[in-house]
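Give me the fold.
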Amino acid sequence: MSKAFSAMKKDIRTTAKTRNDKIFADFLSGRSRPGKDWKKAYLKNPVLRTLAKLVVWEQNGRTFILDASGAARDVDGNAYTVTDEPVRVAHPMEMTPETTEAWQQYFTSHGLKQPFEQVWEPVADAALVKPGRYDGCTIPLYMLMNKEKHGITMEGQSQITLAGCSAGLRLVEGHHDWVNNDFEVTNFRFSEFTRQVNHIVVHLDKGTVAGRIRKDDISAARWFDRFTLAQITEFIRLAQENSAVNVLAQLLEYKNEHFADFDPMDEFTLDLI
């Protein structure tokens, strides 16, 4: 009985992980599915229904979630009827800032952990994403390896493809341990600013901030809102080690202003991606 129960739990975890990967892929692509198929999958299957309660969905421009009882509710907490119209994973790019903030408050107030950073995904200003955005910056190699789910594919030790966009990525060798080397990022381009491109921009922003801090480049402050308290604390240590006094002052000020009580991303995000 014990072995059978353990096997059943393993199957449930595998099913949840596989479905979560699909939901994350749909989050990046914007793919939708007919409402009747969505209802069949998420309202009738108890395992998938549990996962659906941790994701914000969108139908005809309205966002909703399944509450603890499994009932659909909109952002104001009102009952929502899921029709047969297409349903997709909601994205902050298509929400108002007020709606995004309301969903963030929903998860924090209910102590719920999302399986990936959905309502917490920053939205970059496409008008500011210019070809020279990362010129002179480097990104750690570990942030480019094994990131296929995020739209970053690495072949060999130097060929890197970014889904929906392109950039000059040159390996900067400086460590005996190859994994600890950096890539210089130049001439970033995209043809259409999609969910996928936004995700990669946010990822590159995070990856290049460390290099800016080492140079005491105060432009790093523009990306502080991308990070959790633990990451900001690590950046403070990095700034201290590199005598980056100007960025250090900005980091300390930002930490005091935004993380006086708690950090929602550390508290309410699962490690499934």
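Strands lie at 32-33, 57-59, 62-66, 72-74, 87-89, 137-140, 152-155, 159-162, 165-172, 182-190.
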